[in-house]
Amino acid sequence: MRQRRHWIVLGALALGISLGAWIDQSGGEFAHSIASGIEAIGTLWLNALRMTVGPLVFSMLVAAVASVSDAMATGRLASRAIGWFTFLLFVAGTLAVLLTQGLLALWPVDRTTADAFIAGASQGNAGVVTSLRWTDWLQQLLPPNIIAAAADNAILALVVFAILFGFAATKLPPPQRNALTGFFGAMAEAMVVMVHWVLLVAPVGVFALALGVGRQAGFGAAGLLVQYATTVAAVIAIATLFIYIVVAARGRVSVGTFAREVAPVQVVAASTQSSLATLPVMIECARERLGVSPRIASLVLPLAVAVFRYTSPLGNLAVCFFIAAMYGIEPHVLQMIGAIFVAFAVSVGSVGLPGQVSFIASVAPICAALGLPVDVLGILVAVEILPDIFRTIGNVTADVAVTVLVDESEPTHG
Known about the structure:
The protein has helices at residues 2-26, 29-72, 76-106, 111-121, 134-140, 146-151, 155-169, 174-200, 202-217, 220-250, 255-272, 275-289, 294-307, 311-327, 333-349, 355-369, 377-380, 385-408. The protein has one domain (2-408): Proton glutamate symport protein (Orthogonal Bundle), CATH 1.10.3860. The longest helix is centred in the first third of the chain and has 44 residues, at 29-72. It is mainly alpha-helical. Helices cover 81% and strands 0% of the residues. The relative contact order is 0.19.
């Protein structure tokens, strides 16, 4: 059902761009008038997505910080696994920045097409986007009034406050902590339901937005979307190879053995696009084919599926740096570092969210860290089906790899 919905949204995108390009070339005044009315529906749909971002990000981060704290308290094995999760997520963020910048240097975004694409996606309301000075960016991290910052869509400040608030909640007595995290967990679930409602009409919203893009950028918009999907998928695929290097560096499992045994898991992941659905196959692979202790496999793999998504910083940062290239923005070093930390935080907070929900909730805060608008996200989510396959493959590969690494570090390994 999920894959069929992806294809319907993708079809709406193609139809919208094609019809918009035809209207731009051959349509009369009446056709342009009708198209403008339809494009207004796209703006309404995009606003519906935007209004859920702040509450969703804040509530899921507060709940996630508490859940990670609880996992750390479950014992030595869980702590070791989370140590590997943390290391690999920060490595993934760094690789995403370097790889995306390198690929965009080899295959630059066409400036004219990008400008037309942005104008169509924002319905002509896109303002001039410029890079912030590093001092201004730093001051935005801790605003004097968090309510006002949230009202002004200062998502980065909201992320920082949510993380601090979540850690403060872990210091409360258990009854108060459980009540608070339970509230924010329920709030996050309610926001997910709202986003689901918005995404139910995604074919209509995407078609309306794509119509505007097609009228502004013509069929060049399709080429830009192909470049986007290819770039993000390539970043994820290349960085996934780093997992093999880490496993090989431990010496107990060779690259060839790991690659051969994890391949069936990757096939299931590609077909289901779900780490959770692939969990039974991952457990069988770790225990039966890679010789991992059943005790370790039974603990680490479910924990990995619950709180670890290796490709989240990879894909989300690649998306944001591609958007930066579309706007002609070159983020400064502090913004890049801040974006990596935000990508780490939202990768933990958005685990368990459906793909399209996770895309919006994860990418918007990173865009904020880089000083980028989110106008084009409503279009980019329509072509997420290709990168999403690579995301799932990378995630399950990393899950199995961390299980092997934790097993190898056990002194009583048998």
